[in-house]
C-alpha cells in the first residue's frame, strides 16, 4: 500500500497513512510554553510554566516523568487541559484537531435541565503546540513535597521580576 501524507490544520503536525494506520508526526524544536497544573492527593493544586517540548505528542491518560518538567522523583498522569482559545481537551477525541460534538453531559458541558444536549467545540486529547494548559495528577510522589518544589519556583520568579 502506498504511503500518503496529510498536512493537518497545524503546520507543525503531519499525519500519514501507512498500511491502513494513521501515523502522527510532530516536529520537535518548537518554542512553546505550557502552564502545568499539578493536583496532589490532598486536593491542593500547584501551577508552573514549563517548556512544552517535553510534552509534545503526549495524550490524556499518559504518564509523564517529573524530571521532564522539573519535578524529580514524581510521576504524573495527564488528566486534561485546554488549547489557546480555551477549548477543553476531550479524552475520546483522537488526533490533533478541534471538533464540534453533540454532548449531553461530561467534560466541557453541564446541562441546566434533564435531557438537554448541545453542540460544543472540543480539542483532541493529544498535546500540540496550540495547547496552553495541561492538568496533571500525581501518581507517584517524590522525596520532596510539592509545596517545597513550587515555593522555590515562586521565589525564583519574584527575584527576576
Compile the SSE list and pairings.
Layout: E1 4-7, E2 13-18, E3 21-26, E4 33-39, E5 45-51, E6 63-65, E7 75-83, E8 98-103, E9 118-123, E10 131-140, H1 146-160
Parallel strand pairs: 4-10
Antiparallel strand pairs: 1-2, 2-3, 4-5, 6-7, 7-10, 8-9
Poorly predicted tracts of residues:
1-10, 16-21
The structural domain count equals: 1
- β-sheet strand percentage: 35-45%
Mean pLDDT: 80
Ends: how far apart? 57 Å
Number of strands: 10
Say what oligomer this is: single chain
From the spread of the alpha carbons, the general shape counts as globular
Strand order of the largest sheet: 5-4-10-7-6
User: What Rg is obtained from the alpha carbons, in whole angstroms?
Assistant: 18 Å
Number of helices: 1
Major beta sheet summary: 5 strands, mixed
Helical residue percent band: under 10%
Order of helices and strands: EEEEEEEEEEH
Find the structural class using helix and strand composition. Answer: mainly beta
Characterization of this structure:
The chain is mainly β. The chain is built from one helix and ten strands.
Q: What's this entry about, in short?
A:
This protein has about 160 residues and is mainly beta.
What characteristics describe this protein?
161 residues, mainly beta, 5-stranded mixed beta sheet, 3-stranded antiparallel beta sheet, 40% strand, globular, disordered N terminus
Amino acid at each position: 500500500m502506498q504511503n500518503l501524507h496529510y498536512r493537518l490544520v497545524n503546520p507543525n503536525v503531519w499525519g500519514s497513512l501507512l498500511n491502513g494506520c494513521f501515523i502522527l508526526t510532530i516536529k520537535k524544536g518548537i518554542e512553546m510554553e505550557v502552564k502545568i497544573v499539578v493536583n496532589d492527593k490532598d486536593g491542593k493544586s500547584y501551577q508552573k510554566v514549563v517548556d512544552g517540548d517535553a510534552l509534545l505528542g503526549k495524550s490524556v491518560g499518559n504518564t509523564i516523568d517529573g524530571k521532564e518538567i522539573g519535578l524529580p522523583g514524581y510521576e504524573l498522569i495527564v488528566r486534561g487541559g485546554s488549547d489557546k482559545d480555551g477549548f477543553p481537551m476531550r479524552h475520546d477525541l483522537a488526533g490533533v484537531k478541534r471538533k464540534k460534538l453533540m454532548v449531553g453531559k461530561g467534560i466541557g458541558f453541564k446541562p441546566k435541565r434533564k435531557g438537554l444536549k448541545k453542540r460544543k467545540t472540543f480539542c483532541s486529547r493529544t498535546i500540540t503546540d496550540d495547547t496552553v494548559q495541561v492538568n496533571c495528577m500525581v501518581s507517584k510522589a517524590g522525596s520532596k513535597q510539592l509545596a517545597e518544589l513550587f515555593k522555590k519556583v515562586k521565589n525564583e520568579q519574584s527575584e527576576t521580576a
